């Protein structure tokens, strides 16, 4: 067995308790895909939302890499990640948990007056409230409040205090209410546009115009897996046009508008755009 770092020992302790764990690098980010899985070359887990299709032994694919298998956690393929890891994360849904992530004092005050009391742990910005049971994850269900459960990871901080309450209808309703909101007018663009890396290789503006039109159609015509479709479309646009600087804020706003018309929030659009840029190294 390779030498265990303190962070890996925490992960093994979590795994022994049935909590799927994975390493995080600085900035609370998962490790990027290995070269064999880069740009979804392996065909598995697009947007980290379809686990089980990739057999890569490295800690690839974000939350979907979380595991309770001690042999995997101690494997040579994970050794470099543990040496470079800044923290441990876990998959709440895989442990049968839902985390209400409260990021502001106002959000904490709201939770104390609205949600059932449960096990709580302090975070760098607020608190995590733990509930027994799983549900879809969702960001910004209300100001300063995120839901982390299925297909999501959370940073491990401490066991917390208090007894863990069962997941209540009050918490479940937060995601239901958000999903039922009409799309409304698109919100303002907050995602950065990639900078110029050199002369544009495209011979005519029509090439970019055609690519954007196809991207908009792909999002507009999506019938399922909207989150995954938006991410993959953003990734495709950036992989083709993101390195030369020909994308403008207006171009990106068109993609965000198409995504928000399908029900995506501005926060989800920004997250998908940022994740795509990070994956491509832009």
Q: Would you kindly provide a written description of the structure presented here, covering whatever features stand out?
A:
This protein is α+β, with helices and mostly antiparallel strands and 282 residues long. It is 38% helix and 14% strand. Helix 6 runs antiparallel to helix 7, helix 6 packs parallel to helix 8 (249-261) and helix 7 crosses helix 9 (266-280). The longest helix has 16 residues, at 205-220. The radius of gyration is 20 Å and the shape is globular.
Task: Assess the beta-strand content as a share of residues.
Answer: 5-15%
Q: Can you tell me the overall shape?
A: globular
Give me the count of strands: 10
Would you tell me the structural class of the helices and strands? alpha+beta
- Low-confidence runs of at least 5 consecutive residues: 46-52, 194-198
Query: What is the CA-based Rg, rounded?
Result: 20 Å
Largest pleated sheet? 6 strands, mixed
Distance separating the two termini? 37 Å
Count of discrete alpha- or pi-helical segments spanning 4 or more residues: 9
What is the quaternary state of this protein?
single chain
How much helicity do the residues have?
A: 25-40%
- Mean pLDDT score: 82
H/E element string?
HEEHHEEHEEEEEEHHHHH
Task: From the structure above, extract its key features.
single chain, 282 residues, alpha+beta, six-stranded mixed β-sheet, four-stranded antiparallel β-sheet, 9 helices, 14% strand, globular
Structure summary:
The chain has 282 residues and is an alpha+beta fold. Helix content is 38%, strand content 14%.
